[in-house]
Amino acid sequence: MQLVMTLIELLQERGIPYREAGGHHHVSSPDFIGVDCCWCSPGSGKFRMGITRNCRAASCWNCGRHGAVLTVAELTGLSPDEVFRLLDFRLLDFSQQEGEGKEKPRGKLTIPNGVGPLLKAHRLYLESRGFDPDEIEKVWGVKGIGQAARLGWRLWIPVTLGGETVSWTTRSLTDCGGRRYITASAEEEKFPAKSVLYGEDKAGRSVIVCEGPIDAWRIGKGAVATLGIEWTQAQAARLGGFARRVICFDAEPDARRQARRLAEALEPMPGQTVVVELETGKDACEADESEILELRKFCSC
User: Fold this and answer.
1) Where are the domains of the chain?
2) Considering the domain 7-103 in this protein, what is its CATH number?
3) Predicted confidence (pLDDT) per residue in 21-33, tens digit
4) In whole angstroms, what is the distance from residue 242 CA to residue 299 CA?
């Protein structure tokens, strides 16, 4: 058996009948592969279950949405761990349009006007949050934007993948009105920021999963951020490649709800997932140093 394969190759190897777009009236999108639903109508020949080519989602016309990894495991007789290893989610290129072997159109990384070294205002802001500006600049590649028409007086925060900057976000130096974070548009990024994990290049086998970059800075290397509580299936898949995931979202009810949903999405994947709630602050930036140290120790990052 191949060590890494596409979904179609796995279905072919296991002798699972499937249809691509146009091959059956239940399969209309080129992004989906149609199979008989293993949950409600196995062997029916109706191809009601659609699984995305990158195995991020699965949905049946009759019984609704299901976990893609669990569905492929049920279809093939493999364990979820085996499916995950064979499809090797962490190596999947999220820009790829599989099937025809062509890449989806990529945006071109565009750095906004005004990005440069941290200025006094940026340094004062970071110091007010308890950070060493030089360390943040060196470790995380953060720069400053001064007087600029669109993104004036913000921190510029690069999002990297494999050591390459593929997108970016910015953080306002004030919380008084306006949007705290403004992220690159689709035309300004090489890969969508929400298809990767902020900080994953600096992580080992275990990660502490936060909402925002500043929380990741507070915890240090080994922390990653989903860039908001609305995580994506692509980010969940990348998290599945780590042996241990400690989810540490903010204390607000919506954030806790999303943390639980993320843990549920990671449940069928290899490794261990734990959800923790901080006791000394609403987020990592406000938590006591002793609790952050315990969190690092618990994760063994």
Assistant:
1) 7-103, 115-195, 200-299
2) 3.90.580
3) 889 988 888 888 9
4) 12
* One-letter identity of residue 27: V
Q: What is the pLDDT of residues 14-70, one digit of tens each?
A: 999 999 988 998 888 888 899 999 989 999 999 999 998 877 778 888 887 777 777
**Distance (Å, whole) CA 80 – CA 159:** 30
Packing angle of the helix pair 68-76, 80-87 (nearest 10 deg): 100
What CATH class has 200-299? alpha beta
CATH 3.40.50.150 fits 115-195, yes or no: no
- State the pTM of this model: 0.69
Q: What is the DSSP string of 13-64?
A: HTT---B-TTSBTTB--TTEEEE--TTT-TT-S---EEEETTSS-EEETTTE
